[in-house]
Amino acid sequence: MSDPRPAPVDETASPDPSPLAPRHDSAADLPVDRREAAEEMPGVLAGPPSPEAAQAPVEAAPGAAQPAPDPRGPRALLAVVPVESDTFPAWDAADVKLGVTLVPYRDLAALLVPSSADPAGAADPQRVKERHWEVHRALLRGSVAPAPLGVVFESDDEVVRFLTEAYATLKGALSRVEGRWEFRLHVDLVESALSESLALDLVTHIYAELRRIAHSAIPFPRDGKRLLSAAFLVDRTSSSSFQDRVVELGRVNGALDLDLTGPWPPYDFVQMKT
After folding, report:
1. How far is 32 from 151, CA to CA, in rounded Å?
2. Are residues 244 and 119 located together in one domain of the fold?
């Protein structure tokens, strides 16, 4: 079993209001994990590990009995979500054939899906898309700590052990993204008459303006001719004003193409080490 360790962002959380309808501009922008996202959107990096992410993997104590194999087979972790411990719900999957299940521990639950026997199958575009939309359904219900691709458990006992040992860190991660979700912005130069140096100055001001509205932000290293790729963690109550401001900035900076996607689960603001 691989051991995911979430690395929370630094800010405190706000209450979770009603979510907006999702707005995704491109199916190709679906995030998989930080490595896969870097391939889809060059420049997305995992960043430095936090103290929590640097902890050793969860391993069984010497001599401890190994859990019996689950008759359902190995299952991949999609996300960790908060639940009401006294009214634990079943998961209403978008497609029951996906076999999505929840494994609870106290007021948390792991959202799982049957794992492909073929490791290459996990990266199949259709499976990636199905995986993402289940995580997004969790986002529409409330806070979510999304997991990267490839975190697989052999049994419910392994899942519960992970939730038990990572409980405090997971609670911290969820509380810090509560009431917030992620938007991603890509900026390209579309008017050749504008010099790159001036375009970069404009992009710096655009990023600073949006960072002021957002709760936190991550600029990614440049790749090729793209001027900016960045992720913004935005309060759900501020989502409309954030999106409107991007539209305004695009209107007054006609030489630039501002491509905003989201809202996303906070893939870039909660890390899980595998």
Report:
1. 12
2. no
